[in-house]
Every structure is written in C-alpha cells, then in structure tokens.
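We modelled the chain as a single entity of 359 amino acids. Its sequence is:
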Amino acid sequence: MKLAFYLPHLYHWSAVRPLYRAARERGWTTVVVPGPSRVKRFGIFPVSRKSEVMGELQKEGVAVLPALPDDAPVVVTTDFVKHPGRFGDRTWVLVNHGTGFKSVMYRFLRKQRAVPYHLMVEGPFRARQIRARVGDGAYRVHVVGYIKLDPYPSMVRQQTRLLEHWGLDPSRPTLLYAPTYKPTSIFQLGEGLLRVTRSINLLIKLHPYSWEGKYAPHRHHRFYERLIHRYPHARLVPPEERDILPFLVMADAVLTEASSVAFEFAAVRKGVIFVDLPENLRHSDGEPLLTHTPRTLFSGAYPVIREADEIMAALETVLHPPAGMRERQEAVRNQLFLPVDGMAAHRALEVMESWFARS
C-alpha cells in the first residue's frame, strides 16, 4: 500500500510525522509532497519555499516528491486543500496540524462539505463539534487520539537533558509562553512577562506566522529580540525549532490565549494558564473567531489572567492545583481526548487498512 502526505507548511510536519513513521513500520510505502508554501521577500514579493521544505525533509531521511504520485490513492493532509479535485480521484485523510479553539476548521469543512474527507480527530468532543457546526456532508470522522503526541510518552525522561541543552536550570519550574498570531497576547503582557518570571525558566515560542510577516506583523518577534538579552532566565525559541514536543517535555506549564498548544498540554496532564481576551472577536463575515473561549471550555480547570503581574500566582496554582481543580481537569481531559498512549497513529492506520480490505 502506498500512502502520500501532502504538507502545506513545514511546521505542520510534527502533526503527521508519527503517522508517517508508523506506516513505514507496517510496511507501507510512504512519500511526502510539500505544498506551494510561500513567504514574502522584502515584505512584497511572494517566494516559493517548496525546494527549501523538500531539503529539510530529506535531511531527516524522508522520501520526498515534488508532486503527488498517481499510484498513491490515499493522501494525508494537515489542512484543507484548495480545489482537491485537481489532484484526481483520491481518498483524503485530514490530520489537523493544530486543533484548538478556532473556528477555521469548521468554516473550511462547510465550504468543502462535498469532499469526502476522513478526519482523524483527538477525541469525542471534536467529533461532536464537527457534526454540530458543519452538519451533513460527505466527510467522515474517526476518533483515533492525538497523533501528534504519540512520541510524548517515550520522551518524558529527556526533560533534564533538554533543559540543559537550552542552558536552563532543571531545578527551576519552566514556563512556556506560546501565543498564537491572531488573536495574540504579546502586547497585552508586554515586557512584564519577562520581568515577573525572573525566578523561573521562561521559553518563548512564537507561532510561525509571527516570524514570517505573512499573516502577522514582524513586530511580534522583533519585540522579544530587542528585550531577550536583558533577561538571562528567558529563551526566545528560533523559528527553525518547529516541533512543539521538546518544549512540551521541558515545560511544566504553558501560558497562552488561544493556541492549540493549550490542548496539547492539557492532554498530557500539564498546567495551562490562559490570558483573557475579548469575547467579541470575529471574522470579517461576522462569524466568531473562536468556537469557545478558554473560560467556557476549560471553566474551573485552569486559571485565567489579564496581566503579567498575575502570572506567578497562576503558575503556583497549576503546579499545585487544589482538589476541585484537579477533578475538573480530569473531567475536561475525558471530554476532549483519548488517552495519550502512543498508539493514535496505529489506530488511524487500522481505519485506513479497513478501507483497503473492503476494496
């Protein structure tokens, strides 16, 4: 059996790398095809990054092709594909590169409801939300677990080594700040984030778009580049570090407003601190930007702050949660996710194998 992976952006690779590796272990022939990823040069001219993406994947030993081969009837993608019919008659499998609060996935699925996507989702909540927010369509939903997190159980013992690699003190708590690019809390917290966290380790990992200047301004990363040298306890993660898993292992908690990283920390029983945002954020057509706010979806499970001076108290709360909060966290996990057991990719492959068995 031949399985192709269509990768719109290089930073999506970590979402499906476990599936790629599991398929190879099962004897499948696998190939990765980068999409026409572009960045703006001099802030004006769009330049293709396809050859760069192919080179990066080849360094990892990944089989790469410039276009989808005709003999790959099943294609795994990390995002919705514009005009999928131009690729011929194929079975499309969607593993969302970042599943979280935003409504964009449901918006695209409604627009492509006639495309028979097979969506591999992390838990029963997402399956219910898709059906409720999209309605009837040719798509199918399969609850397989968090494929992206499959390597996590085997990585947890690397925490000390990874912290030392980054020049951080393993005896201190470590906080990951992972803002999304829109809406973002970068300027709401400001330099206060760096100032109040001096007694702990701080990792700042921006969304890739906050580096590229495509959907977010370059001032996102320039803000920290100007400040980071003043704060020895903090590290600004460079854009080349695309995989969230090492930082999920290193950090005891994540601070964010609406990043899908919050879901990943919650799924592996780590702390989450949310930065409160206005509740009337909307797309240009009036649809809410977020399907849920952290206050509603994670109500009672994790603290919500408004300003930097609240960070350290919130961190103490998530590191030593009271009993009621622990119970609420467990309830949220059971609602949102299958257990992170390293087997989600294999469950997805079993679904695919069942198609071939029936054909």
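As a brief sanity check on the tokenised model: The radius of gyration is 20 Å. Residues 36 and 50 are 6 Å apart (CA to CA).
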